Amino acid sequence: MDYGYVRVSKDKQHEDRQLVALQDCGIPDGNIYVDKQSGKDFARPRYQEMVSQLGAGDVLYVKSIDRLGRNYDEILEQWRILTKEKDVDIVVLDMPLLDTRQGKDLIGTLIADIVLQLLSYVAHTEREMISQRTKEGLERRRAAGVVLGRPKGALSKTVKLSGKEEVIRVLREEGTNWAQIARLLHVDRSTLVRFAKSRMADVA
Questions:
Q1: Residues 69/42, Cβ–Cβ less than 8 Å
Q2: Within 10 A of 50 (CB to CB), how many other CB atoms are there?
């Protein structure tokens, strides 16, 4: 039986792209599980429900490894549980080398393990690096006397972004791309870019 897993960080984010990719693989909607929750751990209701349904010979599809999670150690542990203990195959659509249906010989398994560890590490450190850059950038601005936050009395029409102009500005100055900032702030990239253009003309 084929299953699919989709994760977005917050309700405001759209899961359409992931859903379409899984549906294109022929996975029925009833076998696609969606969580709208952070990837910092695996205490997610729909994920846990899905795992309880998975059995030997089943195949789990995910769009990318960071949709599975963003905690390095827990990604590796969940991968072990699914593939070794439950005998489930996993297919990561954005990374063909992470398809446990293929290359079940020693070399194939070794390559898949190396790729898995590398991508899990990237997913984990991306989250940590963005958080650290934001913290350091804001500290520099405070030290320079910049007043952070939304001015008193300002109306918050865009609840997710109002008052976060300095955070966005710091991240852009540190080289963070729009997609990464959108994930950090739990908004769509298009919403973030429109907000920046209308409220922050100095930010490229």
A1: yes
A2: 20
Q: How many whole angstroms from its chain centre is CA 188?
A: 13
At residue 184, the pLDDT reads 75
pLDDT for 3: 98
Strand order in the sheet with 2-8: 32-36, 2-8, 59-62, 89-92
Can you spell out the DSSP letters for 107-168?
HHHHHHHHHHHHHHHHHHHHHHHHHHHHHHHHHHHHHTTPPPSPPTT---SSTTTTT-HHHH
- Secondary-structure percent of the chain, ordered helix, strand, coil, rounded to 5: 50, 10, 40
Phi, psi angles (nearest 5°) of residue 124: -70, -50
**Which pairs from 189-197 meet CB under 8 Å and 24+ separation?**
191/158, 191/160, 191/161, 192/161, 192/168, 195/158, 195/161, 196/168
Question: Nearest-5° angle of CA 99, CA 35, CA 19?
Answer: 55
Q: What is the C-alpha separation between 65 and 69, in angstroms, rounded?
A: 7
Distance (Å, whole) CA 43 – CA 40: 9
Q: CATH number of the domain at 2-122, please?
A: 3.40.50.1390
Whether 35 contacts 51, CB under 8 Å: no
pLDDT averaged per 10 residues, the chain (length 204): 92 82 96 90 94 96 88 85 92 87 66 68 62 68 59 45 74 78 81 83 66
